[in-house]
Amino acid sequence: MVRDYVNGILSSDKFILSKTITLVESTLPKDIKLAQEVLDKVLPHTGNSLRIGITGAPGVGKSTFIEALGNWVTKQKLKLAVLTVDPSSQYSKGSILGDKTRMGKLSHNALAYIRPSAAGSVLGGVGQKTRESILLCEAAGYEVIFVETVGVGQSETVVHDMVDFFLLLLLPGAGDELQGIKKGILEMADLLAINKAEGENESNALKTKHDFEQAFRLFQKAESNWQPLIVTCSALTEMGIADIWDYIQQYKSLTQLNGYFNRRRQQQNLSWLHELVRYNLEKSFYQNATVAQALPAIEQEVLQGRQAAISAARQLIEISEPFKRNDPTR
Ligand code: GDP
Fold first, then answer.
1. Where does 167-308 have alpha helices with state H?
2. Which of 24, 81, 96, 144 could serve as 113's disulfide partner, Cβ 3.0–4.6 Å?
3. What is residue 250's three-state secondary structure?
4. Distance (Å, rounded) from C-alpha 87 to C-alpha 97?
5. Which residues does 178 contact at the CB level (< 8 Å), separation at least 6?
6. Biggest CA-to-CA distance, the chain
């Protein structure tokens, strides 16, 4: 069983890859165990891709841009996988990013693999699954991986933590506040692309570029030695798309040469480890039978102001058996 999955992935079988990602996304204990075994086996074949995060507000042109850049990437005979982190899916069954009509051309491209986002998981969980999906795509031989997310909040940070290069799409004619972009997100970007810059939008786009350049003077990426770039492009006419790919290549060469590329991946792995520990500890804590039983009453005590949150938390931790057993202070 494990061998079938592993062989399928290593021979770049899209159907098996999809099946394995579904396995990785499952919350059933038997699936989690199987997925873990498959991941362990393919791990030596991972890490060889360029991971690119792409974000921007709804309507900025992300899927059109991914089609354009994606087709360019595959024209270079590179295999491309597109994954998404969809923050909408934690609240509803619907999703901002997941509809099937997106990226029609790319989805028929033999060198491209597009995986719609998983719905119905918590954000931390989705990030975690996307990381595992990246590894599976790498083992299946994908050389470039786009991780797309809609720029509406927390998900950008999650994506930034799992990619090598972070690209932010903007619209001509509005400052960062008007575009709903938080300063922190702007600071994370390695490249800002002002999209829809064709035709009569061109001069407006150039003015926006100039405005952002002023703001960007303040940001320095001392660690990577990379000066973030601001460019204009049109996903619709493909103007500027090939240049953006060149810039990404330049970033890769620079950071591979100065060692930042690998250091960043090591750091990302380390923070992934700690995230997983936190996530799993918290999960097993709340699944603990004694905790689950006592929780509603203790929550009420805190809600009614009869008990302080801090003593309630201590009480819960004290009654949870596995944590009690391992408490070094006892
Ligand atoms: P997303 O919500 O960010 O994925 O945005 P979409 O890719 O779905 O694009 C939203 C709308 O903007 C669609 O109607 C696209 O055709 C249009 N669009 C995307 N890129 C461009 C562009 O470069 N120029 C123009 N004029 N329209 C674009």
1. 183-188, 202-216, 241-258, 260-287, 289-303
2. 81
3. helix
4. 9
5. none
6. 72
Residue 55 CB less than 6 A away from ligand 1: no
Question: How many Cα atoms within 13 Å fall on the side-chain side of residue 98?
Answer: 15
Tokens standing for residue 142: 């994908």
d(CA 56, CA 45): 31
Taking only the tens place, the pLDDT of each residue in 157-199 is 888 999 999 999 999 987 656 566 777 788 889 999 999 999 9
Rounded CA gap, 320 and 330, in Å?
14
Residue 144 CA: distances (Å) to CA of 168, 239, 269, 284: 17, 21, 19, 36
Structure tokens given for 117:
């986002």
Q: What is d(CA 171, CA 176) in angstroms, rounded to the nearest whole number? A: 10
- Residue 61 CA to ligand 1 centre (angstroms): 4
Helix or strand holding residue 229 (H, E): strand 229-232
Nearest to 102 by CA among 146, 167, 141, 133: 146
- Ligand 1 contact, 236 CB (< 6 A): yes
pLDDT tens digits for range 22-58 = 999 888 889 989 999 999 999 999 999 999 999 988 8
DSSP code per residue over 21-61: HHHHH---HHHHHHHHHHHHHHGGG-S-SEEEEEEE-TTSS
pLDDT in tens, 96-143: 555 545 677 888 899 999 987 654 445 455 578 889 999 999 999 999
Which pair of structure tokens corresponds to residue 260? 């930042």
> What separation in Å is there between the alpha carbon of 295 and the centre of ligand 1?
47
Spacing, Cα 308 to ligand 1 middle (Å): 50
Closest C-alpha residue for ligand 1 atom 7:
61
Give the number of the atom of ligand 1 that is nearest the alpha carbon of residue 67: 7
Any idea what the Cα angle at residue 92 is, between residues 90 and 94, rounded to 5°? 110
102 CA closest ligand 1 atom index = 8
Residue having the nearest C-alpha atom to atom 12 of ligand 1: 61
Helix (H, G, I), strand (E, B) or coil at 52: strand
